[in-house]
Amino acid sequence: LKALHISGSTWAAAAGSSFAGGAQASQLQVLVQSANAAQLQSASQKVTAIIERQRGVTQVQNDLSTREPLVSVQIDPVKAAAYGLTPGQIMGELSPYLTNNQITSIPQGGTRLPVYLRVGREGPQGIAAIRSVAISSALGSVPLSSLATVRLTTTPASITRTNGNSTATVSGVITSANVGAVSAAVQKAISNAHLPSDVTISMSGVTQMQGQAFSQMGEAMLAAIFLVYLVMLLAFGEGRSPFAIMFSLPLAVIGALGGSSSRATS
């Protein structure tokens, strides 16, 4: 990769990861959900710090860390009423400055193209200019700053919602060969973090895939045992002998688990 000589780029290779299909096979993902935006932000930061301290995890990212500027306009209903205005009327006059409104559509090649109305380059530039936007009222024009509090703030670049609750995704790449141990350590550390009661934590990524794989393997084993018992029942013609043979299965499972532990296989 370094042979490409791309200026300003940094390359990192993590053991145990794969780029097949555009996703990393050893990616750890923790979903943090809450209806309270402040608690979601705080909890996601704590989870991020926990994962960053965990050995064997690199490239930790929090999708709430990427923020974009946002103009906040908080209208004072009392001040608006003094000028004979309602918050809805004020936002209606501000709408061309904040959004592109579709006013009509024109035919083009069998389809219709939408036409939007928006403020050109001569529109207000900067927070001070927005505060000075003139709002028409029964008493004449009045600057927006006399009716509302206008400030520049930031907001997450993207917000995901699950069942109506905002969700933050904290992700990282597991570089350790023992993926299961790292995932278990992260889950234990998050459980001991004493997050607020209305914050929900769920594991995704490789941890979720491992859980699903083990669940499906267990179901397959139970189905296989039942089918083997049916075959032996038909072969022996009675139920006692198949049970005697099936009793050796626990010993086989113990031997398999013991062999896996001795080879440190996860």
Instruction: Tell me the number of helical segments per DSSP (H or I, 4 or more residues long).
Output: 8
CATH topology of the largest domain: Alpha-Beta Plaits
Low-confidence stretches: 1-6, 8-24
The percent range for strand residues is: 25-35%
GO molecular function: xenobiotic transmembrane transporter activity
Protein name: Acriflavin resistance plasma membrane protein
Pfam families: ACR_tran
Transmembrane segments: 220-237, 243-260
Descriptive account of the structure:
- By secondary structure, the chain is an alpha+beta fold.
- It folds into three domains: 18-67 and 158-209, Alpha-Beta Plaits; 73-150, Multidrug efflux transporter AcrB TolC docking domain, DN and DC subdomains (2-Layer Sandwich); 212-262.
- 39% of the residues lie in helices and 26% in strands.
- The protein has helices at residues 37-53, 77-82, 87-98, 127-131, 179-191, 206-236, 240-246, 249-262, and strands at residues 27-34, 57-62, 67-75, 101-108, 111-117, 134-135, 142-143, 148-156, 160-162, 165-174, 200-205.
- The strands form four sheets. Strands 1, 2, 9, 10 and 11 form a five-stranded antiparallel beta sheet that branches. Strands 3-8 form a two-stranded antiparallel ribbon. Strands 4-5 form a two-stranded antiparallel ribbon.
- Helix 6 (206-236) packs antiparallel against helix 7.
- The radius of gyration is 30 Å and the shape is elongated.
